[in-house]
Every structure is written in C-alpha cells, then in structure tokens.
TrEMBL record:
PANTHER family in the cross-refs: PROTEIN CLEC16A
Gene Ontology cellular-component terms listed: Golgi apparatus; late endosome
InterPro entries reported in the protein's UniProt record: CLEC16A/TT9, CLEC16A/TT9_C
Classification lineage: Eukaryota, Metazoa, Ecdysozoa, Nematoda, Chromadorea
Compositionally biased tracts (Polar residues): 590-603
Protein name: CLEC16A/TT9 C-terminal domain-containing protein
Residue ranges occupied by any CLEC16A/TT9 C-terminal domain in the UniProt entry: 60-161, 199-540
Positions of region (Disordered): 586-614
One Gene Ontology term from the biological process aspect of the record: regulation of autophagosome maturation
C-alpha cells in the first residue's frame, strides 16, 4: 500500500504541466531512476535464482507470486510514466531503463552465443520479462529498443553486462565488439528453446513472447513484423525461414514416444494460437502453409499410431477419450493470467492422480501418457480443421447419437419388459424413497418412468441417462446402486452425477435381472461409441462398406413403445439407422434394403408424430 501510494504521488507530480515543476522533476530523476533501477536489478537476479532452484509446490508458488507482482508493478509504473508524454523525463527514463535493465538483464541471455562470465538470467526468466514488458508498456521507443536487437541484430547490439566484482557487488561493464558477429542469433536461441524440449518453462514463455509480439505490433507497429517476415496482414507471401523451421520442428516433437521432454498440452495449445496467426497472415495456398498443414497431419498420424494399442486393449479408453475432449474444449489461453502464473515459471511436476493439472504438468503413469496424447491430438485436430477450412462432424461423440428420450416424455410401456422398483436417494443427510417406477432401457438410454395418471400402459419419464456412462454395484440382496456420470463434467472438481441412487426391487431375482440387463446394455452402448472413436481416428478396424447400425431390437428384452412429442427434423427417405447418427454418410437407395425405414414406424394411438425407441 505504501509503494502504491508513493507511485500515485510521484505520477501526480510528474504530470504537472508547469516549467518550474518539470525542471525540478528532471533534476531529481537523475538520482531517483538510477537508484530505482539498481534496486530492481537486485530483485530480478534474486527472482531468477529462485526460479532456477525452487520446486513447483504451493508455498514456492505463493512466494514467487509476490516477486512477480512486484516486478509487474514496476513495469506498469514505468508504462504510466511514459504515458504522461513528458518529453525530457521520458527520454531520461528510456535511456536509464534500456542501459541498466533491458540490455544487460532481459536481452543479453538471448544474444550471447557462449558463456561470458556475466550475470545471465535463465531463458525462462528472460522471455518472462520481455513478454510482460510488451504487455505493460506501450511506448514505441521502448518496444523498438527491445525488439530491434532480437529480430535484426547480433551480439554487438547488446554489449552492456553485469559482473560481480571482488567485493561481491554488481558492476556494469561493456564487452568488446566481435569482429565477425553471429547472424540470426536470437532465432537460433528461439529454435533451441522451442524445439529442444529440455526446458518446459522457457519453451512456454518463448511461445508466449511470440504471441505478445503479435498482440502488440500488429495494430501499432506492423512495419517491424513485415521487416522480420512475420506475416500478419493476410497478404504476406513468405514466412521467416527460422520461424518456419521452429513451427515444423515443434510439430515433429508432438508425437514423440513418452519421455520427460514431451510437449505439455498447454504449450501445444499456445503454439497453435501463434501458428494460426502466422498462417492467417500469409496469402492463401502458400508453400509455407502447405508445409505446416502437412507437418500437422504427420503429427496426428503418429499420435494415432501411439493411441491405437490402448484403444484396443483398455476398457476405460472411451472414458479417457471423452473426458479429455471436453477438457480441451474448455481449455483457453488468457494472456493476462498465464503471463504471471508462477506455476508455469517453475519446473513442471510429476504427481500421481494429477489429471486436473495435467495440461501444465508432466505425466506420472501410462494413463497420464494417454491423457496427454489425447489432449494434444484434439488440439492438433482443431488446428488442422482451422487450417483446412473444414467443419467438425465427428466430435463430440454423443450428439452423433440422437437423444430419443428426455425427462417428462410420455412413452408407451405396454410392449416393454418392465422391472418395477423404488428409488432411494440422499439429499445431504436426508434419504428419500420415491414411489414405484418402471426400469426400462433402449440401446442407449437408462430410463425410469412413473405410471401415467390418464393413459393406461403409458409412463412419464422421470430419469434418463446414457448407458455407456453408467456404473452399477450390488447393494443388499434386493437392490443395486446406480451412478450415471456426465463426461462433460466428470473431470471437474465439483462433479455432480446425472443420476445417483439405489434401485430397490421386490426380491433378489428382479435385482439380479436388472443388474444383468444394465450390464449387457452398458457393454453394447460402449462398444457402439468405441466404433465411433475408430471413425474419428480414421482407423481401418471397421470396414467402411459396413455402416454402423443401431440394432432395431433391444438387447434387454423388448424396447419401450412410441414416444409422443414433436420429433427433431429427420431427412425423408433415410434409414432409421442413419437418422440416429449425425454426420454418417447417406446410403443409396439400393444399399441395406433390410434396414428399417421411416415408413415402418407405426402409430399405435391417436396421438400424432410417434417415434419408436430402438
């Protein structure tokens, strides 16, 4: 609070438009700013030392967060001073900041081809400070001083450095000019950081720095992007060869076999944002764009090759597939948050049962490896669809199967094999028991219905859930416990099941029969969705000449009868098997003649628009 008050007071004084006040401010600034820079420099070095040595745990994250807040506060303070547009004060602050902070601390570690004995920040810290510099300061002179040496210069552009003298104090020295400087040194360092895979923190903040360059320069300084061959306008015909190599090399790393140098999903997500900006900035159908699309396709194929054995042997692959798909759908990069996230500046951890933070951390076991590969596959698939201008027709899996039954629907139960039961559910500490309900299933749904008060043989649906997401366990002799989860929220901290309760039957024979039916129906529903996963991955296990059919006869006795409500729009003339699958190809009139057609859907009552459940 004291620091904030002091900054507010000094900004108020700096902004006074009076010649005598400005002369006083300029005179005092000659001592104030150098002393402030030396204090900040010492704190920057301490923070860098902490980043190098601290483990990624909560206490260290909190300690680092306070350091980050202090440094970001200084950068915002300088940005506010530059925004006052006091010419003499801005010139002095610019020279002081560039000479004492920007060149020897932020830029030098990225511009030296070898160790020189100077104090150098680690690459992660350098990219971190440069990224937040672009986000915090709008002064074009400062931005140009930061980016010009990186994009166009060599090691002779940055010669100031800090060393430790005999007394253990920091002193600034100036390096001699190199006779034959190294060209494109920054891009080489960028290539090593992003494609090397040995430093996860530096890799992430290097990508974030590229994203910040786009965010800052596209609207204000596009000429710098054009000079550096970084496409941004949609009319560029070439991409910087070094950046092109970085993009392709990063995609080649995406499908490596499991090791500690694998890409984290959060880094891959950020990469696709940066690469998408670059491709959008290119003219259509350029060679660079085609190479990136081809590299993306190769990475996806390699990932599919790694996922295929697990798909064939793991019973829980469907659960992992859907969980990670919905997790990736909710994954987003909020620039202001990730730029100051201490967990991303510290080394990633490898913890058991850490699926919640797996996009930022390293996999612990085989299941984590599968989750990470699935996340990267979904990110790359979305990126590939964007590049090729295609629409997603195969994901998510659930909407491809028509939601035939919903709560409050009225269904005909007269032709169905029913099992009557009551439901015990807990709300907090209160246990409630419902009136008797009918348990019935179709191929995809678990249905509980209560007797219709006006129509004999009909029922009103009170609970419905997907069979593939059901979990069944035995209670006492005459009951079973049922939990139906939702894959869209199953990975969340506050996961609330779609249905959770105990089904109580009249005797143990009915309870055993119900468990057997639900188990069989669950297996059929899961097998169907696994076939859809084969379609998504483009694997040849399913012959495409044999379309995926919905079995017209229930696997659990007879299915419930007609459902009375306004049905969704169904294209006329299509077999029912395909009407229930969105995105499936249309069969010709001579294919699969034995399939059920809409003309075969009967009307068993006076109501209109009946649709049979299958």
């Amino acid at each position: 609070m004291v620091r904030t008050a002091i900054r507010t007071i000094t900004l108020s004084i700096f902004g006074i438009q009076d010649d005598s006040v400005q002369r006083f401010v300029n005179q005092q600034a000659k001592n104030f700013f150098p002393d402030l820079m030396r204090s900040i420099m010492d704190k920057v070095v301490r923070m860098d030392t902490f980043v190098r040595s601290a483990q990624n745990e909560l206490s260290n994250q909190e300690r680092l967060s306070s350091m980050i807040d202090e440094q970001i506060g200084y950068l915002h303070y300088f940005g506010d001073i530059f925004a006052l547009n006091c010419k003499d004060l801005n010139e002095f602050l610019h020279d002081c900041f560039v000479a004492m902070m920007l060149e020897p601390l932020y830029l030098l570690p990225l511009m030296l081809p070898h160790e020189s004995g100077a104090i150098l920040l680690c690459p992660a810290s350098s990219f971190f400070f440069l990224t937040n510099l672009l986000l915090s300061i709008d002064d074009q002179n400062v931005i140009q001083s930061a980016l010009q040496p990186l994009l166009f210069g060599n090691e002779n552009e940055v010669r100031r450095e800090y060393r430790v003298d005999a007394n253990g104090k920091y002193e600034m020295t100036v390096r001699e000019i190199v006779a034959i400087p190294t060209k494109l040194l920054f891009f080489r360092r960028l290539h090593e950081t992003i494609t090397g895979g040995y430093d996860h923190q530096a890799e992430f903040f290097a990508l974030l720095f590229l994203y910040a360059i786009y965010q800052k320069l596209s609207p204000t300084m596009p000429y710098l992007l054009e000079a550096a061959q970084i496409p941004h306008s949609g009319k560029c015909t070439a991409l910087n060869p070094e950046l092109q190599s970085i993009f392709v090399g990063f995609l080649q790393r995406a499908a490596n076999k499991p090791n500690r140098n694998n890409i984290r999903p959060i880094a891959m997500n950020l990469f696709t944002v940066v690469a998408r900006r670059a491709v959008i900035g290119l003219s259509p159908d350029t060679v660079c764009e085609k190479e990136i699309v081809e590299a993306t396709e190769n990475a996806m194929q390699n990932l599919i090759g790694l996922l295929e054995p697990d798909l064939q042997i793991r019973d829980d692959f469907l659960d992992l597939f859907e969980e990670e798909y919905f997790r990736v759908e909710r994954m987003e990069i909020k620039m202001d948050n990730v730029a100051v996230d201490p967990a991303l500046l510290l080394p990633p951890v490898c913890l058991k049962d850490n699926a919640q933070n797996l996009s930022k951390d390293l996999p612990f076991d085989v299941e984590d490896d599968i989750r990470v590969r699935l996340q990267i596959f979904f990110i790359l698939r979305k990126f590939w669809l964007d590049l090729t201008g295609r629409q997603e027709h195969l994901l998510p899996l659930t909407p491809r199967i028509a939601n035939i039954v919903e709560v409050s629907d009225c269904i005909d139960l007269s032709n169905s094999d029913l099992l009557m039961c009551s439901i015990k559910q807990k709300t907090g500490k209160v246990e409630t028991t419902s009136p008797s309900k009918a348990l019935v299933t179709d191929q995809f749904h678990f249905i509980l219905a209560e007797t219709h008060i006006n129509k004999f043989g009909y029922g009103v649906v009170t609970h419905v859930g997907r069979l593939e997401n059901i979990s069944i366990s035995t209670g006492d002799r005459a009951s079973i416990n049922v939990v139906i989860s939702d894959p869209r929220t199953r990975f969340a901290y506050s996961n609330k099941p779609v249905f959770e309760g105990t089904l109580v039957f009249a005797d143990n024979i009915r309870a055993f029969s119900a468990k057997q039916r639900l188990t069989t129906a669950r297996k059929g529903a899961r097998d169907f969705k696994v076939k859809l996963i084969y379609d998504v991955l483009g694997l040849s296990t399913i012959k495409r000449s044999e379309p995926i059919n919905i079995i017209p006869v229930s696997m659990n006795g007879r299915a419930p009868g007609p459902l009375y409500r306004n049905p969704p729009f169904l294209p006329s003339g299509l077999p029912l098997q395909e009407l229930a699958i969105f995105g499936q190809r249309h069969r010709g009139p001579n294919e699969n003649n034995a399939a059920t057609t809409p003309a075969q859907i009967s009307d068993n009552s006076d109501d209109t628009n009946p649709v049979h459940l299958v």
